[in-house]
From TrEMBL:
Protein name: 3-dehydroquinate dehydratase
This protein's record includes keyword Lyase: yes
Function of the protein: Catalyzes a trans-dehydration via an enolate intermediate.
Family: Belongs to the type-II 3-dehydroquinase family.
InterPro entries, per the entry: DHquinase_II, DHquinase_II_CS, DHquinase_II_sf
Major enzyme class: lyase
Annotated pathway: Metabolic intermediate biosynthesis; chorismate biosynthesis; chorismate from D-erythrose 4-phosphate and phosphoenolpyruvate: step 3/7
Amino acid sequence: KQYLVLNGPNLNRLGKREPDIYGSKTLTDLERELLQFGEEAEIGVSCFQSNHEGDLIDALHEAEEQYAGIVLNPGAFTHYSYAIRDAVAGISIPVMEVHISNVYAREEFRHHSVIAPVAAGQISGAGFFGYRLALLALVNQTGGSKH
Ligand code: DQA
């Protein structure tokens, strides 16, 4: 089975963007780590990033054909995009929400996720490692493990 890691707006700026919050590693580092983890754990992993709401929605729709589950970091869309929420609600594969930072320890507007009620679950504050946790949780839920 294949799993998609979908990163939203401003996450292409990882490493440069607020490194005190998001760390000094880049999106390329993250994607490389996840591809390597996928190989080691025998989990098929693909990665995609976009700054555009519509492109993320298209990717969610298209993923249904190809993937068993999605790890989604919607960036700031987390807090207000009903369109992304509807896309998540409208596909039949599970979506695990991930945040690098602990959104509940930050500004008030980050405490609310419009995605969380339609997601399979949420991981917040585990850094890049949270993506691995999310992949493992999805594999566990969808029977994707070869072992
Ligand atoms: C984020 C948290 C969001 O509040 C923020 O807008 C982001 C990144 C995170 O990974 O911690 O862009 O999703």
